Amino acid sequence: xxxxxxxxxxxxxxxxxxxxxxxxxxxxxxxxxxxxxxxxxxxxxxxxxxxxxxxxxxxxxxxxxxxxxxxxxxxxxxxxxxxxxxxxxxxxxxxxxxxxxxxxxxxxxxxxxxxxxxxxxxxxxxxxxxxxxxx
Length: 135
Hints:
This protein is of the alpha+beta class. Helix content is about 30%, strand content about 25%. It has helices at about 45-60, 85-100, 115-125; strands at about 10-20, 35-40, 65, 75-85, 100-105, 110.
């Protein structure tokens, strides 16, 4: 018997970008990839926030870390911004935080954001190439 876990949807905006664009960030040579997630802080959003905090706590700082957060746990919108040594480190955090239970829906494009596309974009940034998201 297979028991399926219902997927929880988190609405927001996900952006992978070159960390040189991060405000006041000086270590872009060590951590070239940055991720910013801005999302609604509803029940699913709170679960994602807890998962992100846990995922970053298990990631060695040599592979990436969470930048100081401007949002608080009580804000209606949460924001997480992290930097990564490479695409594999970003993928590890995304897989740990989202698992099979949470899907991220881009509010602007009204589509589920495929994690593999975020990782592919990170690979392109690390290689100095442009990448166009397909979703």
